[in-house]
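Supplementary Methods, section 5.1.

A reviewer requested that the exact input to the structure prediction be made available. We therefore reproduce it here, unchanged from the version used in the analyses.
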Amino acid sequence: MPRSAGVASVVRARAPKALREVGGTEELRFTTGSGELDRVLGGGAVKGSLVLVGGAPGIGKSTLLLQICRDVCKSQTVLYVSGEESERQLKMRAQRLLVEREKLLVLSETSMDAILDAASSVQPDVLIVDSIQTLYNPNSTSAPGSISQVKECTMALMQLSKTTGTTVFVVGHVNKEGAIAGPKVLEHMVDCVLYFEGERSTNYRLLRAEKNRFGSTNELGVFEMVDTGLKEVPNPSEMLLAGRPLQTPGTCVACAMEGSRPILAEIQALAAHSTFNVPRRTTDGFDFNRAVLLMAVLEKRGGMNLGACDVYLNVIGGLRLDEPAVDLPVLLAVASSFRDRVVDDSLAAVGEVGLTGEIRAVSHLPQRLHEIARLGFHKCIVPRQGTDQIVKPASMELLRVRNIREAIEIAL
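The structure derived from this sequence is encoded token-by-token as follows.
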């Protein structure tokens, strides 16, 4: 009997249940051994879940998944299936990453039927497939990596995870636009979609959850690529502020919330006289349209003639900031470069900027202030609105402002 017919007969045999009769109201989680990955997954991997890990080639997806085998295999059986490497290549990579476990089984295979047969025989607790674009269903005539093949293979893995309780991690390549290659329905089918980000020219990698049925999608995991694989960065603020120039115009420190974690980042700006009729605006790590809006507010409400300047904006460390609380430090960095005056090295800023130049309140301010104080900053510019009853660290001086003119006067 073809495998597809067997699956269909099993589906028809299942009967509906009353919701109160369904057991297991809590997710059964287990740690992957990586605190940063557990954070992004919402507190650990969920048994019977299907997790898709995407990223650019060479960013570290396969390295991360092979590394977690080192800890998961202490108590569970893991089957690592590679469609891109032989068993010998997997062993060489595992030795380099110091991964040697009896419960780690490897298989070099691209046939979906063969993979399902191996999973049925071994009955692993965790199945890792690297990558979904290399698999094919023998019953389909389309080529591996095509839309229909990717969809059918993902559907088979989803049925495996839901019927057997096996946790499945799937590696997915990304296209030149940065999205996971294959049909968009692929991301709808899985339980979690994780994206591995970072510049290949730097050692730091960021792991984000684009979708998570079992936790928040706002958490961020930070890793550093070293000779022995990926190393967790438990304190990313120190990493992002390392090497920050002191007593230099055009820089300001911001505090952004990535899920439940406050992260400090350095924002640099350069405002230079333009030789073009239309001045240039360039951003890296910050939304371009938002930056243009803030520059218009700074020119109209702050009295700075940025129309004659090229402005370049950069967030150091490859981090992307997209929350309103970083508006004020972005604006202060541009103003500092335009006036060629230094923002105090012990000062940070938090606040949303409105179109009239007002500074509006932000969320999670106490957590941000404690992180700012922990990193050695003694002053922080904050919105006046909603901060009268705030509990601040003893070593922190709060500089409350109503609008951008007050903020610029204090900072510069």
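The first strand starts at residue 29 and ends at 30. These observations are discussed further in the main text.
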